[in-house]
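G., before I forget:
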Amino acid sequence: MKRRAFLGTAAVGALPLNASAAAPGATVSTKIRRLNLKHTWTTVMSSSDYRDTFFVEFSKDGITGIGEGAPIVRYKESAQTCDAAVKAILPWLAEQDPTQFNKVMADVFRRIDGNWAAKAAVDIALFDWVGQKLGVPVWRYFGLDRNDAPVSTFSIGIDKAEIVKEKVREAEPYPVLKVKVGLDNDEEVISAVRSVTNKAIRADANEGFKSKEAAVEKINWLEKQGVELIEQPLPAANLEDMNWIRKRVHMPIIADESCLHPQDIPRLAPHFDGVNVKIDKCGGLLEGTRMIQIARSLGLKVMLGCMVSSSAAITAASHLSPLVDYADLDGYLLISNDPYEGVRMERGKLILPDRPGLGLKAR
Ligand code: MG
């Protein structure tokens, strides 16, 4: 049988991946969605009632891949700048072969300046498309066992004691809580949590402690309250004081704001016990897996974190969660108008979809 004839017969039920490069271009579209928060969200950095996140849809061969990135103001990006950045490369992107996503994403990184959430949305849309094309969930594509997915924390926003207690009661199904600290009312908030539950608590200071001495004092107090780890006690650029702190406390200290990209990790390794990897910050699942592998090679613990976003971005990150020690992937639970259904939590454990690609369903 001639090769062309063989390909024609084999195409039924097989994967015509070779053919896709020759197929007509994809349809790529962008969208900004306003996600409404269930509770007003307060950190040391901001307070808000909604978040605008950025979506990319990549459609080709009757398959649509969906990607989402949550822009971070601190890194000089917004849903609008992400939208403009991807719109500027749309004609080029529509002609790319998504099965060659390594090459495509390297080029996306060269073509888009900053706008990491935009890169993440493109990367995720490509993985969703390729997973669906191959008929495998993204976790399986990466060779992972979805039973290894960890328990995720559930975040309790900073508020007055009575409201904090109510939020903790609402969080009854989740066995590990995450609490923001680094504000003047840390004692009030942690004591309020402890007055209604004995669950494990992970704390996030978001760079909020005023000095290394204040950090040590507070971390040792937090340990007595049953807090098991803390993120980012000091400002991102302050690495010198981290070892001074680590010599005086027991709990693991995880870098978050200090850790954005793969190249940050080697210089953080001597100063932290672990790193928080966020897909929206690094620019996608490919870059995220690089960060996880680099951190592992340096003996660091790895947390997979998230921004407030829909199930699209959170499910994408969750597909890598079998690789990490700690998951903080509750961002989709904090909104009231999630357009998708994907990853679920059962008693906090992440349950990854077994459907191809991200495994999203429209709500
Ligand atoms: Mg953090």
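Residues 204, 206, 231-232, 256, 276, 305 surround magnesium ion (CB under 6 Å). The two ends are 47 Å apart (CA to CA).

More on Monday.
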